[in-house]
Specification:
Blueprint: E1 13-17, E2 20-24, E3 34-38, H1 43-53, E4 61-63, H2 73-76, E5 81-85, H3 86-109, H4 123-126, E6 129-135, H5 146-152, E7 156-162, E8 171-174
Parallel strand pairs: 3-5, 3-6, 4-5, 6-7
Antiparallel strand pairs: 1-2, 7-8
Helix pairs in contact: 3-5
């Protein structure tokens, strides 16, 4: 079942203080800060590392995994960090794609001239993320795989793809709409 480390807060920017991550309290509209996508085997490690290295209560974390996960974008938007897996994203993307196809087919079969209602976006795809971090990014090296298509569909200001696999060792920073390349790009997210 999903795990939340603390209740959501208004924090949305990170800073380092005394060697620990702390959230700075800023004004303005609240948005989800970071979506971290990783293999299932690393999900608990990410959660533990955030708990270890963030000041107590500084960050709110939600694990978007399992059948009982909250599928409400408004809820996800209230967390500083959301952790999920490539498999969950792929599954949600496939379900969303099936629903959209079903609606389109129903509209084609209908004699009505009215436009079909647009399908509802599944939670991770309905949130405008500050950043999306892909751990073990070689999981999406095939651009046409379900997991890759799901990752590319995530709305984000910045996308960071990291892998330690020796033959794939690269850092990527992709702006919205761009796909990872073999070039090494280091850039900061826009403020």
């Amino acid at each position: 079942s999903p795990v939340a480390s603390t209740q959501p807060s208004g924090a949305h920017q990170l800073a380092a203080r005394n060697g620990r991550l702390v959230a700075s309290r800023g004004g303005g509209a609240r948005r989800a800060s970071t979506l971290i996508v990783c293999p299932t085997s690393l999900l608990s490690q990410w959660h533990e590392q955030i708990a270890t290295h963030a000041a107590p209560g500084a960050l709110t974390v939600y694990v978007y995994y399992g059948g009982a996960r909250v599928k409400d974008a408004a809820v996800l938007s209230n967390y500083d960090v959301v952790l999920t897996t490539y498999g969950v994203l792929g599954s949600d993307f496939a379900a969303q794609s099936r629903e959209a196809a079903s609606i389109a087919n129903a509209a084609d079969e209908s004699a009505s001239s009215a436009a079909p209602a647009s399908s509802r976006l599944v939670a991770p795809f309905a949130v405008r993320w500050r950043r999306v971090v892909l751990d073990e990014a070689h999981y999406i090296k095939g651009r046409t795989t379900l997991s890759a298509l799901a990752v590319f569909a995530l709305p984000a200001e910045c996308r960071w793809a990291v892998t330690e696999a020796e033959r794939h060792a690269r850092w990527y920073t992709c702006m919205p709409g761009e796909y990872p390349t073999n070039d090494v790009v280091i850039a900061e997210c826009p403020a």
